[in-house]
């Protein structure tokens, strides 16, 4: 089950990263908060590169899988303000065209964080020795 979740999450990250740079580039810009001091396009492109690298890492870097899983969980935490900005700014994107849908999306982020940690055994980083 862990391998399935890890590979599925890696594939999801690869697709999201590709989407950031191509077909969904404009849509992803709706999630970039206005207070970020860089252009929305730069943030979308840079996060797309990071997503691709994390997606490849979680699938293929067996030796560093736990660390990549931890990095992915941190990434999900760092992009969470974008999800909040989409909700508070009432910005449509990815079928999230109501405040209810955008609010529900906020509760999915902890699930992604847990899957990243669980599927890579990165939860062990939090256990006392």
Quick synopsis:
The chain has five helices and no strands. It is mostly helical and 129 residues long.
Structural key phrases:
mainly alpha
Order of helices and strands: HHHHH
Report the average pLDDT across residues: 92
The assigned structural class equals mainly alpha
> Oligomeric status of the shown chains?
single chain
Q: How would you sum up this structure, described in words?
A:
The two termini are 26 Å apart. It is built from five helices and no strands. The chain has 129 residues and is an all-alpha fold. It has helices at 2-21, 25-29, 40-60, 65-88, 99-119. Helix 1 packs antiparallel against helix 3 (40-60), helix 3 runs antiparallel to helix 4 (65-88) and helix 4 (65-88) packs antiparallel against helix 5. The protein is globular and about 40 Å long.
Give the SSE map.
Elements: H1 2-21, H2 25-29, H3 40-60, H4 65-88, H5 99-119
């Amino acid at each position: 089950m862990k391998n399935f979740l890890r590979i599925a999450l890696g594939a999801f990250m690869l697709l999201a990263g590709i989407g950031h740079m191509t077909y969904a580039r404009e849509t992803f810009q709706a999630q970039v908060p206005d207070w970020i001091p860089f252009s929305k396009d730069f943030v979308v492109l840079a996060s797309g590169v990071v997503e691709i690298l994390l997606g490849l890492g979680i699938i293929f870097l067996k030796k560093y899988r736990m660390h990549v899983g931890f990095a992915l969980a941190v990434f999900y935490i760092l992009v969470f303000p974008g999800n909040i900005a989409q909700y508070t700014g009432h910005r449509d994107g990815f079928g999230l065209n109501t405040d209810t849908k955008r609010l529900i999306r906020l509760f999915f982020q902890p699930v992604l964080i847990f899957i990243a940690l669980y599927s890579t055994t990165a939860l062990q980083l939090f256990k006392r020795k």
